[in-house]
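SAMPLE LOG
Freezer: B-3
Tube label: C17
Construct: single chain, 295 aa
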Amino acid sequence: MIFIDGVGIGENDPLKNPFFKFGFNTFTKIFGRIPHLSDQRISITNGAVFPVDPLLDIPGIPLSGTGQTSIFCGINAPRFINQHFGPYPYSTLIPIIREQNIFAELIKKGKSVAFANAYPKIFFDYINSGRRRLSVTTLSCILSDVYLRKIKDLYQGKALSAEIDNRRFVERLNYKLPIIKHELAARRLVRLTREHDFTLFEIFHTDHIGHGRNSEMLIQFHTLLDSFLQSIIQNLPDDTTFLLCSDHGNYEDLSIKSHTLNPSLAIAYGPGADYLSKRISNLTHIKEALMDLIL
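STRUCTURE (predicted):
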């Protein structure tokens, strides 16, 4: 599974939507066309692109804290606290995350899980200081004793950086790592999937770009993301199902800096793709649908 922050299905408008402005071969070469609000669902043999409702019958703009809790815990988190909330989970959601996150549930069932992202030393310093303003994914791992990968794992090819190619670790944090190609990053993630029943990789730069609309970063990362996803799908083992999903829209409409009300994007590929596309219609369905496939 790849969780990608802040990507929805937007308008067929290159002035707003980078998928139409810059193209996206993952859509056009694998699925035949780019999804948009008037054409949200695409089905091919072993694959599907489909919309997922992030609003969950609660007024307001969807936010990451409640959206990600809904994805990874299978509950309607906005309804539980009567609002969309983010970027971090609301305090009363933390006990639910502890008990019901997908890592914890799969571990209880005897399944092997992995979180593929590597974190720099400053992150572990932050954790060790006692501060815990964390994303739902990271908090889920900590509360479930799932190993959080370190820089040494990046050096050994056993993890990925959130921006896929190590560039931020090199250019902003001064680590002496190679900036890797999308093919190598994809191979590393596929290898991790072979070693575990459930593997998660999180990409959050899409939401940051959507808020900041940094054109130089946008073009570079858009191309990298596209090539990376193509490589994942094209090299997926025959017995593995791939799911990409998001918590809310943002990146698909760069005319504004805020999240959108658009449906969240989902892409499924592999033997379970048809099941996932039919089973998932809102964020709360994702965890249960994945667990049904794995178990």
